[in-house]
Write a structure and sequence with these properties.
heterodimer, A: 86 residues, mainly alpha, 4 helices, 67% helix, elongated, B: 204 residues, Rna Polymerase Sigma Factor, Chain: A, Arc Repressor Mutant, subunit A, 2 domains, 10 helices, 72% helix, binds zinc ion
Chain lengths: 86, 204
């Protein structure tokens, strides 16, 4: 892909900085667009950090799916009764 | 808001939070019966403390905080302790430098294994393994991972639940995840999920 001239320059970051920001990125805690752009730019150019991010994101998804709770019906009824009675 | 409206509003919000409350309570107490009691008690407490809810948009973190406090004051001592996993040497809120080090050094095998064609098979086994690995995490990391990763709270909200600074959540999330990965990696190794082929992997 050719760089268009109005595309802003993105500062390069190293693997250490990328890995330090990885969880903030995945947890939606990287809030300024510049940091996000730097991080994503690094991923496009670094296979190792790209794979790491893929892995962390897949693992996060798996944790979410596996650890999600489901209130037993007995508890649901108990809570509804409790709220009815207050 | 008139009283019936408040009650209907409360009821609606509790309905939406039931699964989350139970999930958190179960992972904290590690017992179905205690988890149900903890949730019921927390909901009752939440109703009586409703006046302390300043921002209705933050009902979830507010409610989780009540549950967490209730757990600490009444249920923690009853909670079932799992087989210890050798986490004794872990400082809960230590420096972060060693984590970055660990992440960088973490075996490429793990990455290769994850990306290999057996992944689907591994995934089906891992659901339960992940839950037991979470159960064995020290409480401070367990609750952070549950709030942020499972319940999708922001670091700010999780910090509000636990009454700690957001930076503490950040570092506990790093450590918690690192410990989880280490445990899963060990488990996969022991269970023979990782063949020598995979370990040699796609490094070449
Ligand atoms: Zn990199």
């Amino acid at each position: 892909m050719k760089d268009s001239k109005d595309k802003p320059e993105i500062d390069e970051i190293g693997c250490l900085e990328a890995i330090n920001g990885l969880y903030a990125y995945l947890d939606g805690e990287m809030n300024d667009p510049e940091s996000i752009a730097k991080f994503e730019h690094h991923l496009e150019h670094c296979q190792a950090c790209y794979s790491r991010t893929e892995l962390e994101s897949a693992l996060g998804e798996l944790i979410r799916k596996s650890a999600k709770g489901k209130a037993p019906e007995k508890l649901q009824n108990r809570l509804r009764k409790l709220i009815d009675g207050i | 808001m008139t009283d019936p409206d408040t009650k209907a509003w409360f009821s609606r919000n509790i309905e939406q939070c039931m699964d989350s409350l139970y999930g958190l309570a179960l992972r904290l107490t590690r017992s179905n019966a205690n988890a149900e009691d903890l949730v019921a008690e927390s909901v009752a407490k939440a109703w009586s403390a409703l006046a302390t809810l300043e921002d209705k948009e933050r009902f979830r973190p507010w409610l989780f905080r009540i549950l967490h406090n209730c757990y600490i004051s009444e249920y923690r001592k009853k909670s079932v302790r799992p087989v210890e996993y050798g986490y004794d040497d872990i400082v809960v809120d230590g420096k972060e430098d060693d984590i970055t080090g660990f992440l960088i050094e973490q075996p490429d095998d793990f990455l290769n294994w994850w990306g290999n064609p057996e992944r689907e098979f591994a995934n089906s086994l891992l659901g339960e393994d992940i839950v037991s690995a979470i159960q064995m995490l020290p409480e401070a990391f367990r609750i952070a991972v549950l709030l942020v990763n499972v319940e999708g709270l922001s670091y700010d909200e999780a910090a509000e639940v636990l009454g700690v600074p957001p930076g503490t959540i950040r570092s506990r999330m790093k450590r918690g995840r690192t410990l989880l990965q280490k445990a899963l990696w060990q488990h996969a190794n022991e269970a023979g999920l990782i063949t020598d082929d995979v370990k040699r992997g796609c490094k070449s």
